[in-house]
Specification:
The chain has two domains: about 35 residues; about 210 residues, 3-Layer(aba) Sandwich (Rossmann fold), CATH 3.40.50. The longest helix is centred in the first third of the chain and has 17 residues. α4 packs across α6. It is globular. Helices cover about 35% and strands about 15% of the residues. The chain is an alpha/beta fold. α8 links the parallel β5 and β6. The strands form two sheets. The protein has a four-stranded parallel beta sheet, with helices on both faces. InterPro entries: ComF/GntX_DNA_util-trans, DZR_2, PRTase-like, PRTase_dom. Keywords: Glycosyltransferase, Transferase. Belongs to the ComF/GntX family.
Length: about 250
Amino acid sequence: MLSTSIFTATANSTLELLAPTRCVVCEKPGQLLCDECQSKLPWITQRWACPNCGAPYGKLVCSECMDKKKRPVQWESRAVICAMGFKGPPARLILTLKDGYELRLAPIIAAAILCSLEEASAWRARDGTSRFDSSKIDGVSFIPATAEAYARRGFDHMELVAQSFCKLTGLPLYDVLIRPHAKDQRLLTSAQRQINLKGSIACTAPVNQSNILLLDDVVTTGASIREATRVLCAAGVHSVTVGALARVW
């Protein structure tokens, strides 16, 4: 209805006057991410990134996906593509979306992931094919929030990012993963993360022979995306490519 549209527009204008939009990094008024802060984003150059774990500068020899005996460990996904390093602006983007309830950041994060995927398409995965080819992706899934986090926030931030990503690309959303038992990962060590996630992710629907793009916010040890990839493959998925906003290394 026209009256509803007028009310919504008026309410939004009033809210903007009372609490103007500010950059989440520097707090300059005007944009959620101002032009200056955009220019300082720590993008990962995909040419030199590790195709196995997404770490910067790991294309030839990557110390981030080796075991304790310095032997390379192949992750279950066909490629991991991370847009940026975690420190600084990317951390603020993620935390402000998750814990600051600034839901308007979801499309910005989705667009950043898409940019990195498009750049990575020019470079090869471990199997010799393109790290990302949208024509070979059947659907988009995401690492879900824990039940505890969902109850606390009232939303799943990666679901919002995945929905925005699907709007940008036209790909269908495969909302098939749940994490009913896992605890928050942020304060856990690498070993504790592995234990915490073992058996904690489940697939709720058949996804036979699909090629899935799995989205996450941050890749740290890779425990979440590796467990999710194992679960998806056990459910019949043909291949999993991972896209994330940030990489900790």
